[in-house]
Amino acid sequence: MTTIGLIRHGSTAWNKEGRIQGHTDNPLDEEGLRQAAAIAERLSGEQWDYIYSSDLLRAVQTAEVISKRLGIPIAGQVPGIREMNGGLIEGTTEDERVQRWGSGWKSMDMGLESDESGQQRGSRAIEEIAARHPGKRILIVSHGAILRSSLRKLVPGLDVGELLKNTSITHIVKDDSGWTCALYNCVSHMEAER
């Protein structure tokens, strides 16, 4: 049985401003660093064997905080789990999109990566990491949209309607019958902070 802990990165200034990040390489903000420390503290009471990260800075910084606390080096930065491409809307807020393209902007071709592309790319990367370390417990630090798309493919029928919170953890487990989700979008470590 292989267990994967999927973690969304800590918060960034663009998260707070409601800006689409996509492939834009933003750093964590002060709160994001605190969130990373909180999830790292939570994970320090558990047994994990490997840590992987998306190659985008906000995920790498989150993974580095976890890596330092757990004493486990980051095994690799994986482009396959980077956030979905936001095309022309990267860096914009909803108000800015409506101003620029009108209220019907969602029906226009904005060059966004499709959910199907995200499902294929993300689930393949997660499957490859799992195949590299059968029977192990692996942390993967990534991004909200690509993780939800990947979960749609890996665990069909799982309700992923709830947006993933910053530094939330989702556990998926692979056995002979495939993947199951044991925990979704858990941020109990942040509630302990308050």
Automatic annotation (TrEMBL):
The active site is at residues 9, 83. It comes from Paenibacillus graminis. GO terms for molecular function: kinase activity; phosphatase activity. Keywords: Kinase, Transferase. Pfam families: His_Phos_1. One of its GO terms (cellular component) is cytoplasm. This is Phosphoglycerate kinase. Coiled coil: none annotated. Substrate binds at residues 8-15, 58. SMART domains: PGAM.
